Amino acid sequence: MEADTLLLIAVPIVGFASGFINTLAGSGSLITLPLLIVLGLPANVANGTNRVGILVQSIVSVATFRRRDAMPRVGVAKVVVPSVLGAAAGAALAVDLDEEMLERTIGVLMLVMLVIVIARPRRWLESHETGRESSAWLQVPIFFAIGAYGGFIQAGVGIFLLAGLVLGSGFTLVGGNAVKNLIVLIFTIAALAVFIANDQVRWGLGGLLAAGSAAGAWTAARMAVARGAPFVRAVLIVILALSAIAMLGDIQIADRPR
Q: Could you tell me if residue 256 is inside a domain?
């Protein structure tokens, strides 16, 4: 079997892994984007094509959380609205960045969160009454800032959203995952429209990626609801560690989604 054929077969498999990772934590694009680039797509086209998988996995995960009655009904608007407004502002920014410094900064932040997740397990595992952990005046700037980061850079935004939702807004880890996927879904609709307008989406590869991503997201959402916060926390620890290693190494992550 030719190498190119093997790579094409790998697309939905890697998509499954990405959908699973992104649904429970974030940074799944650290494995999908390199594959798309190896298949010959320019970085910007790989970025746009990757959004097809993210869109589909977000739709599937949100629908699965809702069907299993795991989507919170209280306090959602006050985190979704500032996040989306922040994303719009972040996408409009045109600032020169030191990419290497940015990668290392994100890597350090993930290491800090890894320590927090490990050292304070009860904070992540306890059930909280949604929306009661901090007042709206504090949540609005927090989620606007996370949204601006997501709109501008995107790398690892799912993990930062999850931390804000659990530690700042009082969502349970499972409920926070559901809301996180809803926010990412809204982000991605706007982002994908831009890539489509600029002819930076390859629908064949995007479809293969989306098929695997949908299956991964469906599996992850069902497992999150069935197994609860301890399982999600365990996955989060692994993803934080691997993402920190990748971002503190020589891997280039600028302009990567999620």
A: no
